[in-house]
Structure formats: structure tokens, C-alpha cells
Amino acid sequence: MHLDFTSEQRFDDGVLERRFTLSGIPGILWTPDAAGPAPLILICPPPLGLGTVYPRLAGRARHYASRYGFACATIELPGSGERPRWAEADRARADLRRAMEAGEAAGPGLVDALILPLVERSVPEWRAALDALLALEGIGGPAGYEGGVISIGVRLAAVEPRIAAANLFAGSLVPASILEEARKVAIPLHVLLQWDDEGNPRQASLDLFDAFGSREKTLHANMGGHTGVPAYELDAGARFFARHLG
Amino acid sequence: MHLDFTSEQRFDDGVLERRFTLSGIPGILWTPDAAGPAPLILICPPPLGLGTVYPRLAGRARHYASRYGFACATIELPGSGERPRWAEADRARADLRRAMEAGEAAGPGLVDALILPLVERSVPEWRAALDALLALEGIGGPAGYEGGVISIGVRLAAVEPRIAAANLFAGSLVPASILEEARKVAIPLHVLLQWDDEGNPRQASLDLFDAFGSREKTLHANMGGHTGVPAYELDAGARFFARHLG
Questions:
Q1: Which whole number is the average pLDDT over A112-136?
Q2: Does A222 contact B217 at a Cβ distance shorter than 8 Å?
Q3: Interface touch A219/B220, C-beta < 8 Å
Q4: For residues B108 and B39, what is the distance between their CA atoms, to the nearest angstrom?
């Protein structure tokens, strides 16, 4: 896949933000104002479209780049933003909405139909993004991963040897097959959990944390709902990566 | 109760360590090399005697004092070190040891007999230590608390308004009555949990974390057994106090 830069902007904090497309997939790269290769952190967005989540993502990325010297990059998930939707995912999302409105729990079939196709489609794209980004001047390994749809992070951490550490947000439903894949993950993990996440059963997240095969894994649980992650966790994540992406 | 200094030592990092007795109870105070009143952190030792745990305690205290400008103090727990033992506690400890060697779980009666008298005796001593320490020149409020026997921290956080934040180690059994007291705790909390703590059921610690009434509470769970808290948690604790003891 081919990476083309489409625009760039330099901020007061010295961070250079460049929009790109990766064979048609929109993405953003933030690099620090520093010499020498910067370790790369892939930031997976929630599936709401980069336009919607840009302020949050850019805030994280610029903190990481300006204070810690990391390069950060994100790409749009399949089916989000301007990318083509696909019927299967739309149907699963509608079914999930109906179940939640009816006060029913999302059954395992529904979770699988919603999450597994997203994992299948997106993980090869993140690996292609790694190929393209690590080939750029000023960016070096090892790479970290952080983000939103935790099942994508589990699969990527299990199959991609260039990911050396991952900061995962336990804020979405996890198919049973992904829980099994978690046992194969061996890299250092930092897992965020919102104690009262509305759509996300706490015990399932604790079971996922328990399942990870990593010798070093830390769970940070905080009060509040899905969107209530405290501001101080931003720097805790940065310090986790600073320990592992030397 | 009356505080008398018995010896002092200044370290390379500028920290002044002073041994004292508080109406006969041995204690240690570490203060930073800085002008102006330093916020105070009480560090409760595990019940193994200050002589045994000194290296660990002094390491924490000097990190807090030299890097963050906190004053830190500890006192010997009742029944530990050179302090008089009491028959009731010795009997409970022996019963607990027998139960564990027989592979039995410690029943609630045993937990109560072991923990509640320690809470009853030690909390007034920590409050007296606060009186004496906050009256010293160079030490100001608000105060923080951290330490080992978590039930002592729960009671102290529930009843002592001068404690503004607490960093608690969920590494000991908790009587049901203390679990109830946890609901009254309202101050910001930072709770450490070792995921595979041998003598300490994980679910009981998660239940305790859940029970705390505090609006701001964070759980940091790490891999390993009781004594395996990772070194990076030292600074995470310091940063928690830095947010709350301004």
C-alpha cells in the first residue's frame, strides 16, 4: 500500500501534523520537532470517524510527541468516516441498537457479527500502515499501539511482532474467540477500564485482563462511565510507553 | 502524646531523617531540604517491625521527599518490632498460620480477631501522630496516608478529616465491618492490587475497591504476588499525592 501526504501543519508545540492517505485510507501522522528516529505509536480511533474524534486524538498525539518525543499515527477504520460502509456491519449495529433499546444483553452472535469483521478488515490495514510509516525518515521502531476497539488491539498484539507494547481501553464488547487470542499476547500491556462503563460489563473486562498472557500487564480502573477516563491517565499512558519504547 | 527526637541523619539527596518516639512509640520522620511547609504523608508499615521494613520505607519516603517535597513519617504498629505483643493477636496469628498450613481459608472470625484489634489500637495512635507532626515547624497540611494494613487506612480515611488522600495497598484480609466502613470514605484514593497475591483473594479486593464511597478512586492492578509490586508504582503513588496535596 502506498502512503501519500496531502497536507501539513506545524503547531506552536513544535509538533508537525501531516494528513495522508494509505492507498485511499485517510490517516494522520504527528511527529516531534526533534532529530533522530522517533518511536512510533499507532493510535486506533473509536469507530466514529476521524472528523469526530480528531480533537481527542490530536490532544493525545501532541502530548506524546511534544513531551515524550514519540511519533503518533492513526488511520480511519473500515466503515467509519468517509470510508465505505458494508451491509453486514450496518445490520449488526442496527441489531445491537434494537437489543439495547429493548433492554436486552447483546448475545455472543451479535458481538461476533459486529466485532470480528472489523478485526478481520482492520488488522491488515494497521500492519500495512506500520510498513509504510516505519519506512519514513525520522521514524524508527519499536512501535506501540493504543486505542479504542480493544479486539483490534488484541489481534494486532498477538500477530504483529513489531508492536512492542500496547495501551488498551477495555471499553467494548469482546468476542469469545478474541478472549482466546488474548492468551497468546506476550508484550507489556497497560489496560484502562472505566468501572461503570454503561455498555460494557465490568466482569468481562476483568476476565480479558486476566486472560492476557503478558508477564507485565497493569490495569488502571477509574470511576465513571465510558467517556469519563480521567485526564491524568493521558500521562500515565505516555509514561508506560516511555518505559518500553526506549 | 509527646514527640521527642532521638537521632538525626542528613542524606546526600538533602533529606533529613529523624528518629523519634511518640510517648514511647518509635517513629521516623523524613523531611525535604526546602523552605516552607511540606505536606505530610503518613506511611503505615506492614506489621513486621520498623527494623525489618526500614529499607523499603526509607526508599519510598526519600523519593517522596527529595523529588516531590513531601514530609513523610511512620510509627511502629502495636505488637510489632520492640513494642509489647498482646496475647489475643498472637493467638489469632497462630490460628491463621494453622489454617493456612492446613490449606483452609481464614474464616471471618479469624480475620476479625486478627485485624480489628489492630485497627482499634493503631488508628488513635496515627491520629496522635498527626497532632504532633503537624505542630512541627516545616510541616503543613493537608496530609496523605499510605500503607500496608489496608483496614487501618480504611478506618483512618473514614474518621480523620485531616487525611486528604490515601494510597492503599489491597494486600491483606478485610473484615466485613471494615468493608462497610469503606462506603463512608469520600477522599481521593489510589489502590494497589497484586493480581496473584497468595494470601489475599482477588475478588475481596475488587469488592473493597467497589465499596469505597470516593468519587475519585483509581485501582492499579499488577501481575505477581504479594511482594511483587513493580518499581514504577512508587512514582505513580507520588504523582497521585502531588495532584491532591498541593
A1: 95
A2: yes
A3: yes
A4: 37
The pLDDT assigned to A234 comes to 92
Pick the closest to residue B227 from B204, B194, B180, B190 (CA basis): B194
CA distance B223 to A29: 34
Residue whose C-alpha cell is 518511536: A39
A3-244 sits in which CATH class? alpha beta
Q: Is B24 exposed, middle or buried (0-12, 13-18, 19+ CB in 10 A)?
A: exposed
Using a CB cutoff of 8 Å and minimum separation of 24, what contacts does B229-232 make? B229/B169, B229/B192, B229/B194, B230/A216, B230/A218, B232/A239, B232/A243
CA of B240: which chain A residue's CA is closest? A232
| Cβ(B173)–Cβ(B114) below 8 Å | yes
Q: How many CA atoms lie within 13 A of A160 on its CB side?
A: 27
Q: Which of A208, A223, A241 to mutate to test the interface with B (most CBs of B within 10 A)?
A: A223
A222 vs B218: CB contact, 8 Å cut-off? yes
- Of chain A, the percentage scoring pLDDT greater than 90 comes to 77
> With bands split at pLDDT 50, 70 and 90, how would you rate the model's confidence at A152?
very high
Element (H, E) at B166: strand B163-169
pLDDT tens digit sequence for B65-74: 999 999 999 9
Give the CATH architecture of domain B3-82+119-244: 3-Layer(aba) Sandwich (3.40)
Partner residue facing B216 (CB), from A209, A223, A236 = A223
Residue in A218, A239, A243 nearest the CB of B222: A218
Question: Distance, in angstroms, between A110 CA and closest chain B CA?
Answer: 29
Mean pLDDT for the stretch of residues B171-197? 95
Grid cell for residue A61: 498525539
Is B218's CB within 8 Å of A206's CB?
no
Q: Which residues of B touch A210 (CB under 8 A)?
A: 195
B151 alpha-carbon distance from chain centroid: 9
Reported as a single tens digit per residue, the pLDDT across A170-191 is 988 899 999 999 999 999 999 9
Residue pLDDT, tens place only, A36-84: 899 999 999 988 899 999 999 999 999 999 999 999 999 999 999 999 9
